[in-house]
Design brief:
Length: 110
């Protein structure tokens, strides 16, 4: 008889075809609008080595990656006053990229 792979779930990491997949998600994402900037901050994921910051002009995405940082903060210096932006952040480590955080939004103003 052939062996059948078993599906299972494990806290903190999942398995995808034998690879460990990172599942940490940043929490408490906050966006503070400024003059043509939006400052973002979030709670760290213990096993993360970096974070991908993503932005959309539409609630729910699709999101474009703005950049990556090893810190728990990022400033979007490409934001334009009067435009509402929607942000998410995902954590990354050697297991890959985790799921997006909850979305937050901000509209910079002078």
């Amino acid at each position: 008889p052939k062996c059948q792979p078993q599906a299972y779930q494990q806290t903190g990491a999942g398995h995808d075809g034998g690879r460990i997949v990172f599942e940490g998600t940043p929490a408490d994402l906050v966006a503070a609008p400024g003059n043509n900037t939006v400052s973002l901050s979030w709670t760290a994921v213990a096993t993360a080595t970096s974070y991908s910051v993503k932005r959309s002009l539409t609630a729910g995405g699709p999101y474009t990656t703005l950049g990556s940082t090893g810190a728990t903060s990022y400033t979007d210096v490409t934001a334009v006053n009067g435009t509402t932006y929607f942000y998410v952040v995902s954590a990354t480590n050697s297991g890959g990229q985790g799921t997006n955080s909850a979305e937050t939004s901000a509209a910079p103003a002078a």
